[in-house]
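Aim 2 progress update. The chain analyzed this quarter is reproduced below.
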Amino acid sequence: MAVNTTAILILLLGFLIMVILRFPIAYAVAISSILTIVYQAVSAGQPVNLNVLSQQMVKGIWSFSLMAVPFFITMGILMGSGGISEKLIDLADAFVGWMRGGMAMVNIVASYFFGGISGSASADTASLGTILIPMMTDQGYDTDFSTAVTITSSCEGLLVPPSHNMVIYATAAGGVSIGRLFMAGYIPGAILAIALMIGSYIIAVKRNYPKGRGFSLKHVGKSLLSSIWALLAILIVVVGVVAGVFTATESSAIAVIYSLIVSVYVYKGLTWKGVWKALDQCIDTLSIVLILISTSSLFGNCLTLLHVPDLCANAITGLTSNRIIIALILNVILLFLGMIMDMSPIILITTPILLPIATSIGIDPVQFGIMMVLNCGIGLLTPPVGAVLFIGSAIANKTDKNCRMENVVKATLPFYLCMIIALLLITFVPWFTMVLPNALMPA
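Predicted structure tokens:
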């Protein structure tokens, strides 16, 4: 067996076996990479240089643009803990609460607004779900339906800027503009929201779920006024980056200071003791992300040295030259990986492999980034490693002891279809993704 083939098997099979054995992803990535490097060195009769391993891991996180990740995470945690959820729910209610199944529509629209602040599906589900799932149940909605709406709509936050997963993708892809990725997420996020609203409306009519109070411009104005401070945080990041006033990293740092002031002094939902608790939570999250990035850098370096991206590209293009089928294959791969892995490692590990294949069939790196993030988002809702599914099910069980994860998964099936339709539109109609970045930030 050729040395490279054996090394590839050690790298990929070792990683897969450790994932199946439920090793932490960072450990699985690091150990499989180290075993591969040791094997190659021994086979070549060379000494193993552990200093090179450490340098490669440090190089993975030695990036100015990557500094935006801790700031965006901190911003989301501060705003999520500072009483912003209720303001955004009220704003969403003013816009869409009058419809049949109005609270489901409120849930979906509130996730779009909140996603622009937290950038995290888990944070969206934990923050809005604890409020909206019991509220919907009290108004006559089934608990499993309420939970299904909450967890699926939380994926909007992965697409709507500022999303730290977009920053991670930009780092893994190398040279992709974070500002263009931010702009590209708005319309796909809206498409996902509309698809979920249509699905919710059909179910609401079938089950005769209640309407909310009638539409009122006065209510809209009042809710918009009370939410303006939260929405301004999004403008600071997005407008600042698009206008070229500052970089994504600089804008994220400014947004953290702004979020701190708004949460403590304007909405007064956060005390200084709560700030320290939020920062502690941020450090926990960030430590996981940075360890993943550093170890994935080592893994990616092994993939490159072993020419795995080229082998994968040749294998897929050898099956077919049809652009549509190749795009579907890429989506299937990402959806499958999303069922067994968390989002960040998927982005970090597969981007160097799949992005060249995507660009070879004419998919722009920005568009592929949106496709990847949405695929990973759907994976967050699927067992056996669906983090958002577990969070939503835990909240549902507290609301209704008879509502188990199996009930939530069954109730989510129609929404999976809505999300797949949105994914296919984003995949095969590039205009939805590229119109805003091309108009506002031409390459």
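The chain has a mean pLDDT of 82. The longest helix spans residues 272-305. These observations will guide the mutagenesis experiments scheduled for the next reporting period.
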